[in-house]
Amino acid sequence: MASVEEIMRKVHHLEIKARRLSRESFSGEYHASFKGQGLDFEDFREYQHGDEIRFIDWNVTARMNAPFIRTFREERELNVLIAVDISGSSVFGSQHLSKRELAAEIAAVLAFSAKHNGDKVGLLLFTSEPVLFLPPQKGTKHTLRIIREILATTPAKRDTSIGTACDFINRTLKRKSLVFMISDFIDHDFHKKLGTLAQKHETIAIRVFDPVEEHLPNVGKINLTDPETGWQTMVNTSNNNVRQAFEKLTKRRLEALQKTLRKYQIDSIDAPTDQDYLPDLHKLFKTRSSRHA
Fold first, then answer.
1. Where does the chain cross the membrane (predicted)?
2. Tens of pLDDT along 66-107?
3. What's the mean per-residue pLDDT of the chain?
4. Does the pLDDT of residue 204 top 90, yes or no?
5. Which residue did the predictor score with more confidence, 291 or 158?
6. Where are the beta strands (DSSP E) in the chain?
7. Fold category of 4-34+77-292 in CATH
8. Can you tell me the mean pLDDT for 260-283?
């Protein structure tokens, strides 16, 4: 476990980077991509030709002896929840970043972008159970706590249940919200519950992964340990059949995930630990912006 000083250095580094990116690169894109979640009543005015008949207020109309309609303004403020998988597999990283560190960086960019847009941001950390929930709030102090908790929290359990996280979000968030689900999505039996989440809340999936998890390197015999269960086995990575079987299983898992994302119209990006995720995040924001135009 990293020391408090090391964690605070990482938080400070992410704060500087995320502030710059959210201000210079994502501020306008975020605003255009994520619209307000509804309309707030503003006032009454007399009906004019072309107005929506469904907005006529019949009580006011009866009192004034003339048709009056309700007028509204867009509710700009969003409720944003960043849900981060901190199960045992999140600490893995064959490159310079672990999946947990990459998740923290992406979450920092999203949190500061939301903050600059005037939105409330919350956090859910989960494994096979909810570990920490911070209700959506505003403020720099709250945003920095989100980053710190992602990096520093040590869960009691190390296995994963995305379905349990989805159930918790649906029970806890009463108002329709924007949910960023950040995980490696190495789990099973969660697809239907992810779909239920997407039907209730606007959901975006961000898959963080390490390249070794998709393409087993040819490095001879190695001991592999499941970081969530502790199960160990010896694998001969020089065996071509072993590598092909591994990639086949991975491909099948990813195809099932993509099928679910398409079925429930969940936008997503892949964020590998060995590449820059920013181009894909830009592309996601621009695609959503053009869709809402």
1. none
2. 998 887 655 557 899 999 999 999 998 888 899 999 999 999
3. 88
4. yes
5. 158
6. 38-46, 68-75, 79-85, 120-126, 130-137, 178-183, 202-209, 221-225, 232-236, 267-272
7. Rossmann fold (3.40.50)
8. 94
Q: Please give the C-alpha separations between residue 170 and each of 37, 81, 275, in angstroms, as whole numbers.
A: 16, 12, 33
CA distance 261 to 190: 12
pLDDT reported for residue 228:
82
DSSP secondary structure of 6-61 = HHHHHHHHHHHHHHHHIIIIIHHHHHHHS--SEEEEEEEEE--TTS-GGGB-HHHH
On the question of pLDDT at 180 being above 70, the answer is: yes
- The CB-side HSE value for 112 (13 A sphere, CA atoms) comes to 21
Determine the length of the chain. 293
**DSSP 8-class letter at 156:** S
Contact between residue 278 and residue 22 where contact means Cβ atoms under 8 Å apart:
no
Return the pLDDT at 179: 97
Residue scoring higher pLDDT (185 or 17): 185
Question: Distance of CA 29 to CAs 24, 40, 104, 241, Å?
Answer: 10, 24, 20, 45
How many degrees, rounded to 5, is the angle at CA 269 between CA 263 and CA 272?
135
Q: 255 forms bridges with which residues in the sheet?
A: none
Q: Report the Cα 286 to chain-centroid distance in Å.
A: 17
Arithmetic mean of pLDDT, 253-264: 97
For residue 165, which of 146, 144, 181 has the smallest C-alpha distance?
181
- The answer to whether residues 195 and 171 touch, using CB atoms and an 8 Å cutoff, is no
Domain spans in the chain, listed from the N-terminal domain onward? 4-34+77-292, 38-75
- Taking the complete model, does pTM exceed 0.70, yes or no? yes
Residue 215 φ then ψ, to 5°: -135, 100
